[in-house]
UniProtKB/TrEMBL annotation:
Pathway: Polyol metabolism; myo-inositol biosynthesis; myo-inositol from D-glucose 6-phosphate: step 2/2. One of its GO terms (cellular component) is cytoplasm. It comes from Larimichthys crocea. The lineage of its organism: Eukaryota, Metazoa, Chordata, Craniata, Vertebrata. CDD domains: IMPase. Mg(2+) binds at residues 37, 57, 59-60, 187. Its cofactor is Mg(2+). It comes from the Eukaryota. Keywords: Cytoplasm, Hydrolase, Lithium, Magnesium, Metal-binding. It catalyses: glycerol 2-phosphate + H2O = glycerol + phosphate; a myo-inositol phosphate + H2O = myo-inositol + phosphate; alpha-D-galactose 1-phosphate + H2O = D-galactose + phosphate; 1D-myo-inositol 6-phosphate + H2O = myo-inositol + phosphate. One of its GO terms (biological process) is phosphatidylinositol phosphate biosynthetic process. This is Inositol-1-monophosphatase. It is an enzyme of class 3 (hydrolase).
Amino acid sequence: MTKSSSVDLVTQTDQKVEQLIIQSVKEKFPTHRFIGEESVAAGESCVLTDAPTWIIDPIDGTTNFVHAFPFVAVSIGFSVNKQVEFGVVFSCLEDKMFTARRGKGAFCNGEPLQVSDQEDIKQSIIATEFGSSRDPDAVDRIFSSLRNVLCIPVHGVRGAGTAAINMCLVASGCVEAYYEIGIHVWDIAAGSLIVSEAGGVLMDVDGGPLDLMSRRIVAANSRTIAERIVREIDAFGPPRDDEPLRR
Ligand SMILES: O=P(O)(O)O[C@H]1[C@H](O)[C@@H](O)[C@H](O)[C@H](O)[C@@H]1O
Ligand SMILES: [Mg+2]
Ligand SMILES: [Mg+2]
């Protein structure tokens, strides 16, 4: 099926995986709150409160999943007082379980993760995505940013087709930074902690502090690289995740 546009896909598997995760957690923690991509699509509210909250993307990379393009993840973040306390991203086809607990480091299948030590943007690979908007103005901004970043110049630009795996690539030191405008809180909640616990830096595309509900992110190995990327981004602001639905 489709959601916000003809290219914003969802399958029965997305919906069933989300229901399975929520039911399993509810059995143990009946008072906790949930923000799930497909529950929000079905009309549930998307407001992050101080309450213990599970932030779930049941399939990150649904378009990849539909096309058998082998990068698909399950992303689960857990927040208290609006701060992510642990994050789990399972990269299904790679069989890699990325985990992080605030203050306790980030791991892949139990092995510690550390971001790249590259400080020179011109020796870097940057990850980003085209996203699912096909609005001409948004696409113009996305391509303008992409052109600016490519022409720094950087060694390359890559995209796994899933924000969560892109962030795990930053945490693993495979790419120096990832940025995107248009993602949602469920795409980045778990990955944001995995990046920071691997020694990385998070910020908004305007250089300010990361706001999980803003639909904008820069995740990088260092502040130097993050701020250099910010200089090249033609920023815009999609409707926030917690913006009341316009009737
Ligand atoms: O819808 P899913 O859960 O597959 O999330 C992806 C978005 O659909 C993309 O637009 C966006 O560019 C990212 O790839 C994000 O991970
Ligand atoms: Mg997603
Ligand atoms: Mg999804």
